[in-house]
Every structure is written in structure tokens, then in C-alpha cells.
Amino acid sequence: MSTFVLLTLTGLGLAALYFLVASGLSLVFGLADVLNFAHGLFLSVGAYATWWAAGHVPGAGPTGFGFVLAAACGVVAGALVAAVVELVLIRPLYSRTIEQVLVTVGLSLAGVALLQATWGADPRPFPRPEWTRNVTGILGAQIPNASLLLILAAAAVLALLLLFLRFTRVGLVIRAGVENREMVTALGIDVRKAFTLVFAIGGAAAALAGALGGVYFGSVSPGQGGSLLIFAFIVVVIGGMGSVVGSAYAAVAVGLLQQFVNYYGTAGLGDICVVALLAIVLLVRPQGIAGRAVTA
């Protein structure tokens, strides 16, 4: 019983990390129709900004409110970088898919190279609070506090995103734009005004994933965002493009599948099973769990 509880909660912690990255990615693709391969860079920026702020910003640090302040600096940095990327690089390339892919892939590679040139390629110890190194007993299982922190953060982000999308005017425009951008434009609403905000929200969520991922892994490295981005894309496709709730469902499925299969099977088998799940979903329900079917 304790093993089942441990695998379930640690799997949900991994799922929470995937969701934080995938939620913004899903919104950006659903509204702006941009396949942003530079999204992992926003995660790395958030992680390194948090790491840097913990040692240089007055009041920030690895303990108590200091870590909250450092993580807030990382989130702001990720949101700003995402907004600048949309304004400078993406906005001139809307409806030009190939150019978007080339630019975002190039930006991702350049960003990783810049981080390596600035702070080196080796992982650096992350300044995490002492209590996140400890465990909490739940139903006989010793659960890492870092996993519990990720679960709470992802639940809070999901709730805030749903409230924003359903009960604010900008959120309603974003939802309508995801469903039918042409119709919203025909009604005289300039959907592109919401694009920058959506990029900023996605960048902030990814940056938060970077900060909490540093706590989860205990270190930060330039390539961390790219490795998590692969699973984030899988989550987005399984959940359905443009669906935040679908991304949450898919993240839970992917996280739990990875954790249980890797424990009871051989190392790396969980990743293979995740890819197999992606293939099954694409064959059976190409629009994803919560996506809408495309009709001719």
C-alpha cells in the first residue's frame, strides 16, 4: 500500500511539472497557431533567474519568503522574455508555419548556447529551501516535499487559469479565439492583442516550472528546458491542442504511467510507454482527449 501511495504522489508531482510547461504551450498553439519550440527556453530562463536572484537580490534566498521572492523574479523574467519573443520574432511570422519553426528552434539552440557561455554547461546546485529536502508521511509512505510542492503549485495555476479564461473579458476573447479565431476577427475583435498576453502567461508558467523543477531535481542546467519540452509536447497532443484541462488530464496520465512502469519495469521503459500512449491517442482520437474533432 505504501509503495502504491508513494508512486502515485511522486507520479502526480512529475505530472504537475509537465502540466506547468504544457499549459502555456497549449494556449499559445490553440490561440496563435504557433508551434513554439523555444518554450523550453522560457523554463531555463526562469530556473536560472531564480538561481541568480537567490544569491544577488536583497531579501531573496533559499529560505522562507526569500525563495518566494527569488521564484517571483524567475517568473517575471520568463514572462518578459516570452513577451519580447512574441513581439520581435513571432508577430511578423504569423501564418508562416515553416518560418516559425525555424525561428523558434534557432532561438532555443541560441538560448541554450548563451546560458552555457554565461554559466557553463555543468549543472549547478539549486538554492532550494531546507524543508523541500525532507519528506512527509502519508498513509505509511514517505513523500518528498518537493513533489507535494509541485502538486500544489500546479493545482493553483490550473485554478487561476480557469478563472482567468472563464470570468474575465480578455479570457473570454482568448477562449473564443482558440475555438474560432476567424469568427472572432469577423466580429471586429483584434485577437492579436491577446497574443502577447498569452505568450507572457505561457512564459510565466514555464518559468515557474523551471524554478520548481530546480527544487525537484536539486540542480539547474542549460538543457533542462529542452528535455522537459519533449514530454510537454506529448502532453499537449494527448490532451488536445488549446485545452488547458485536457493538458491537465494528459499530464496526470503521462506522469503516473512513467512512474509506475519505470518502477515495475526496466529503466527507460516508462518513456517508451508514454510514446506508445501518444501513438494510440493519435490513432484512436487524433484531436486529443479534450480536443474538438475537425470536420470538413
Automatic annotation (TrEMBL):
Pfam families for the chain: BPD_transp_2
Xref: CDD domains: TM_PBP1_LivH_like
Top-level taxon in the UniProt lineage: Bacteria
Keyword annotations: Amino-acid transport, Cell membrane, Membrane, Transmembrane, Transmembrane helix, Transport
Kinase found in the keyword field: no
Topological category with respect to the lipid bilayer: Multi-pass membrane protein
TM region(s), chain numbering: 6-27, 34-53, 65-89, 101-121, 141-165, 194-217, 229-256, 263-284
Xref: InterPro entries: ABC_transp_permease (IPR001851), BCAA_transport_permease (IPR052157)
Location(s), subcellular: Cell membrane
Record family assignment: Belongs to the binding-protein-dependent transport system permease family. LivHM subfamily.
Protein's name in the database: Branched-chain amino acid ABC transporter permease
